[in-house]
Amino acid sequence: MTSEPTKRPLAPLEVTNVVPRGLRVSAALAWRLAVVALALYGIMLVAGYFATVLVPVGIALLLAALMAPAVDKLVEWRVPKGLSAAIVLVGGLGVIGGLLTFVISEFSTGLPDLQRQVGQSLDTIENWLQQGPLHLRDEQIREFISNIIETIKTNQAAITSGALTTAVSIGEVLAGFILTLFILIFFLYDGEGIWTFLVRGVPSNVRERVDVAGRRSFSSLVSYVRATAAVAVVDAVGIGIGLAIVGVPLAVPLSALVFLGAFIPIIGAVIAGAVAVLVALVANGFVAALIVLAIVIAVMQLESHILQPWLLGRAVRLHPLAVVLAITVGLVAAGIPGALLAVPLLAVLNAGIRSLLSTRDRNTDADEVDVLDDAGSRPGFRAKE
Q1: 362: closest CA among 220, 221, 210?
Q2: In 3D, which of 203, 198, 206, 183 has the Cα closest to residue 64?
Q3: Are 276 and 256 within 8 A, CB to CB?
């Protein structure tokens, strides 16, 4: 009588060989992607917790990238570094303060005219509701208005709470502005020393590569700010001229809104243009709103097909889809500050990673990278050549 041979258990190596190769590769990729996703989620949580510090730092970096060329030019003219930074900072604050004062003054001057035109538009809408195809009665219109007032009264607590929240937010904005200004002073005065100190914490065998990549990243940020400012000026001037021709009130403040909104690529200009169309609708009527809409679309087409590919595309070398996705992620993660900082952060990461992966930067000395040159973000570019 023969006994059946006992089956010995498979060794771990043999078990691995039994699993299909595609499943093994998928499992390996899956757990690695899970670890990366978990790490990114942790970074986002930490960044959200320290947002009150990180957002002012990010905005200060953007402003430093905008003002650094002027500081460098004054230093070339034998002006001391500290005095150069003070002159540029005070001059920049003066320009911004003057612009805001002018906008507020124009808004205050044009507000009565806007109120009069809005009142005329409301009368026109009321006449259309009564004599148009709807044939509404005065009682129905008054009842509709009474319902709106009653809704406001019912939600008065929520509105009051929202006002208090807005007041707290204004306080946080003022504190963030002071912190941003304080950080910006040191970035303009001793940005090179701050970066040198940070690079000392990198292992010595890769310190030079990281130094070069960081300088490429800041050069990309400088190019981004320059290109964005140029695009914002063109948008504001184009839409402002159109609003003035059509006769829309508050054309200058609306142009300033377009200028500020253009610093959030694509989305900011669209929102500012929509506000201009809405003001034209309530103040000048439907035909004027259509004309303003056509002007906004024409300026946006000029921006998206000519200015952004020529200026912004050369500066940051990012696909438009990557820009839109970055803005969306930033908006979801951190609201307006996230949308403002998303594309610059993506541009900085893109330039730094490209430099680290490029073979042309292996023998590049950090001192040879001109961070204020538009071509400084390109791997292999050397200012001394």
Answers
A1: 210
A2: 183
A3: no
C-alpha 317 chain-centroid distance:
16
Supply the pLDDT for residue 164.
43
Q: Which of 229, 240, 284 is nearest to 118 (CA)?
A: 284
In contact, 194 and 57? CB cutoff 8 Å: no
- Along the chain (385 residues), what's the average pLDDT of each consecutive run of 10 residues? 55 66 86 92 85 88 90 89 90 81 72 64 62 60 61 56 51 81 91 90 88 89 86 86 84 82 75 83 79 87 70 66 79 78 87 86 80 76 61
Q: Could you please report the per-residue DSSP string of 110-128?
A: HHHHHHHHHHHHHHHHHHH
Q: Which of the 8 DSSP states describes residue 285?
A: -
Distance between CA atoms of residues 318 and 308, nearest Å: 10
Alpha helices in 200-305 (DSSP H): 207-246, 251-261, 267-284, 286-302
**Residue carrying the six token digits 């009565």:** 112
pTM for the predicted model, two decimal places: 0.74
pLDDT digits (tens, 9 = 90+) for 119-140: 666 666 666 656 655 555 666 6
Helices (H), the chain: 12-18, 21-49, 51-76, 81-131, 138-154, 156-199, 207-246, 251-261, 267-284, 286-302, 313-316, 320-357
| Token couple for 266 | 């694509």
Comparing CA positions, the residue from 231, 198, 224, 234 lying closest to residue 213 is 198
Gap between the Cα atoms of 164 and 158, Å rounded? 10
Q: What is the pLDDT of residues 253-309, one digit of tens each?
A: 888 888 877 877 667 777 888 888 888 877 777 788 889 889 888 888 777 667 666
Residue 246 C-beta-side C-alpha neighbours within 13 Å: 29
Exposure of 334 in the CB half-sphere (CA atoms within 13 A):
21
Instruction: Tell me which residue of 363, 231, 374 sits closest to 308, measured CA to CA.
Output: 231
